[in-house]
Each structure stands twice: as C-alpha cells, then as structure tokens.
Fold this sequence. Notes:
There is one protein chain. The chain is α+β, with helices and mostly antiparallel strands. About 40% of the residues lie in helices and about 20% in strands. The chain has helices at about 15-45, 50-60, 70-95, 135-145, 220-235, 245-275, 290-295, 300-305, 310-320, 380-395, 405, and strands at about 1-10, 115-120, 125, 130-135, 145-150, 160-170, 170-180, 190-200, 200-210, 215, 280-285, 325-330, 360-365, 365-370, 375, 410. The model has no long low-confidence stretch (mean pLDDT about 90).
Amino acid sequence: MYGCQQNLISPDKELKAVLEFLCIEASKLINCGTYYARQLFFKTGRMPSRAKLHKVLGTDNRNIHYKAFYSDTAQQILTSVAESFQSYLGLLAGIKEGTVTQHPRLPGYRQGGLALVTFTGRSVKLKDGMLRFPLGKQVKAWFGIDAFYLTMPSNLEYASIREYRILPRNGCFYLELVYQKEAVQSDINVDYVLMIDHGMDNWITCVSNIGTSFIVDGRHLKSINQGYNKRVATLMSGKNNGFWSKRLERLTESRNRTMRDAVNKAARKVINHCVSSQIGTVIFGWNKNQKDSINLGTKTNQKFVQIPTGRLKARIAQLCEQYGIKFVETEESYTSKTSFLDADELPKFGEKPEGWKASGTRIKRGLYRTAKGWLINADCNGCANIGRKVATMLGLDLGGVGRGDLSAPVRLKLWSYESPRL
C-alpha cells in the first residue's frame, strides 16, 4: 500500500532556476517522445514500448533534452509518454467492445509550460538530512552543477520512500513523495455499514445501520468556490481569451489548496466515525459521468461541477483500504424519490416499471414526507435507499436504520473538530 505527500518548496533564486529548467526540459522531452510515437503510429499503426522510447531517445541518439536528466529520471518521463499511447490503444479497444462511447484523441503535444519531473527512490540519496537529486552530465557541463538538494521531511522514513516528484503548479513547486505504508489493523464489523449520499449544501450525508447519522456541511466550501469564480471573472473582464497572470495563479493555487484540505478533512471525519463505531462497510452512491453530463443550469452546474466530490470519493476509498474497511460504489437512481420507511420498490437505472410511483414525496429542499405523513430529512432518506441498492447482494441488515436517524442527523462543520454523537 502506498501513500502520497506533497510538501511546498520555498526555493531561493538559484534553486528556483534549477527547478524551472528541469520542468521545461521535461516538457520538451515529452514532446520529443510524443513526436516519435505519433510518427511511428502514422507509418506502421504500432505504438512504441517504453523500452523502445528509452533506446531511441537515449541510448541511440542521446537526445539533448534526455541528457539534461539523470538516466532514471529521463526514463520515467518517457515512460509516461508510452503509457499515454498505450492507454489510447486501450480506449480504441473499448470502442470496439462497446464499453467506451466517446472516440479518444491521439495524445498531442504540450504547448510549452512546465512538466512533472519524477525521480526514482534509488536515484535520490540522503546526505546530512538533505535529499540529493542528481542531474544529467550535460547540465554539469553547461552550468557546473551535478545535483540539487531539498530538505528531508521529518514525518517520513527515508527507506519507505519509493518515488520523488517535482510538481510545478500555479507558480509554485511541490515535492511529492510516494511512500510505502502499512495497513492499519482496525476492530471493525463488516455487518455494520455506513451509507453515503453526496450533494452541495450537504456535501455528504451519512447514515449507518447502527443508529447514527450525520451531515458534513458543504455551504462554506460552496461559498469559497463562488468567491473564487467572482474574483476570477473580475480579473479577466475585458481581457483576451487565454489571459493569465501571476495574480490569477496565486488566487487559483490558494483555492486549490483549500479544496484539497476540504477533501482530506471530510474523508477523515467519515473514517474516524467508521473506526470509532466499528463500521466495516462503506457504500457510496455515485452515478458515472454525472459531473460532465449533468445539466442543472449554468449557475448550479458551476457550483456542482467545481466541488471536488469525485476526489472526496477516491480519498474515502483510499482510507478505507488503509483501515481494512470494505468500500462499495453503487448507482443512486431513484433514491431521492423512493420512501425508505415505506419500503417502496427501488428501480435500477433505466429499468423503471411502467406506472411506477413512489409512495412518499419530497415536499421541499431537504424535507421528505412518507406515505404515513412522517417528515424526515430528504438526503438521509436517499442515503438509506443507497444502502438498499446493494443490501441483498452484500447480505446487509438495514433494520437498524430508524425514523429518528433519518429525521435528525448531526450537522458537522467542515473545518472543525466535531465528531458525530454516538
């Protein structure tokens, strides 16, 4: 099992020049590899393997951009090119099989800019508390330096790090470390299940079959995103298409950091609750392509699409793997319309029976009335129905989900240390 950590680099002028040079050379090397791969495909219909790219641009021709890097690093950059072309072939095969609907584009060229630079674990050495990153012989001949140094993070073991990445983003540089970590042994019960429904004001709503329910509030996150969009619109007003500036870079980077922090905070609240309540199964309701195909209107689309719920789902799944919790993703069609307490029939997507009608109704945003006239939280009702989608398949008992859990969920602020009351 692997983890990933990003550390912001605060370089001086000399180090910043080295990092910029490497990322520019990486972008140029990617274009060289892309050119060779495209020409080979046009002429022969075949794609080069990563070994072929390493040989053609490295061993055979000693490409000038290849020589700017330590050999392991240059090979890692070209490997990413080979993998992108192999993915293209996989998508073409998916079209023939009917599993892919949109025709993919052949990987194209980078339009300048800075690219990711990857160092393998064996290339980087630890010396006096500093990480030594080797450079190519050509760089030593040109600039008289053969390596640059970065501080070793104090919270990681050097021996556990498998890969180092120099990540340029919005005018900043990050050191991304991929490290090996041990799975956490948790005292959990797979029969205890937490069901998750996602939205906007209620970013995620969670209901369990052991008598707990809570909502992670998304209104603050939505407000931050809205403020960012307004500020960007003001700064770009009257400018040409493609306009960008350092001010926009700083604004975007600040917003992105906030979003990443929100994802980690929300996922941690979910996992902490699972561990403390011995919950061993998490069910996440998710419809494929809902982010890029949804049509809720221009304003609502902007709010919904730009909130990183997909990354939150992936982060929860990653933490579930670490803690030995079973993660299940299921489609959520008709879950918001169907009454859980009345045990309405719950159709699958595209299989709604003719004349089907729910016994309850959603009377307003956030409120659902059952057939018996009970008022419950609409998102909690949808959340419980998400569990019904896979309950039979997983052998789960949802009898512990009661009217009280669906009526009064605990609301947790995103940036707080609150925990759901047990």
